[in-house]
Amino acid sequence: MNFLAHAWLVSASSDDFLYGNLIADGVKGRDLSDWPTATAQGIRHHRRVDAWVDSHPSVVDARRRAPPAQRRYAGIALDMVWDHFLARDTLGRADSEEIIERCYRLLSARPAPNRLASMMPLLVEHDWLRGYADFEFTCRAVAGIGRRLSGPNQLAALVPWLHDDYQTLEQDFQALWPALFNALGCANTPS
């Protein structure tokens, strides 16, 4: 659910490709033939980035530190915490504002997949991408996503750990973000 990070990574791409990156978490399956070519490429790109991030030593270590009972859900919370650090460090910059407004324009103008259809209007209306700069907002968003899952809210149960591990998670992000940009062949990280 790290919309902002994925948008930063492909900010120079076409609207269709960016849109694919933004909606990828809501698209199931490998058959993307119903999507325009560039959107399908964006979905695939998002999935490749997620696989790379999930295998990065900083992320593997962060998941190990998560409470065992919620470890299975830690990746979702971590994605949102990565957006927190990115928003906190870039909010107010012209390039960040341009990316956020472009995301909101695309998400307002195009339909989201069913799994995200009810969430996308809220994301835009409540300005989540800027809101992520505030850690308490991010924690409420983590818990809110947890309410969308079946069973007990395991994401809400991770919030105390996110608070307790904040400094180490920030160090994880500081190692992860430039490594990701380097792996993708990007010239400069946006921090």
Total E-strand runs = 0
Report the order of strands and helices: HHHHHHHHHHHH
Q: Main beta sheet: strand number and arrangement?
A: none
Structural class: mainly alpha
**What is the approximate shape?**
globular
Straight-line N-to-C gap? 20 Å
Estimated radius of gyration: 16 Å
Low-confidence stretches: none
Measured as a percent range, the helix fraction is over 70%
Q: Whole-number average pLDDT?
A: 92
Estimated share of beta-strand residues? under 5%
How would you explain this protein's 3D organization?
The chain has 191 residues and is mainly alpha-helical. Helices cover 71% and strands 0% of the residues. It is built from 12 helices and no strands. Helix 2 packs across helix 3 (37-55). The longest helix is centred in the N-terminal third of the chain and has 19 residues, at 37-55. It is globular, with a radius of gyration of 16 Å. The mean pLDDT is 92.
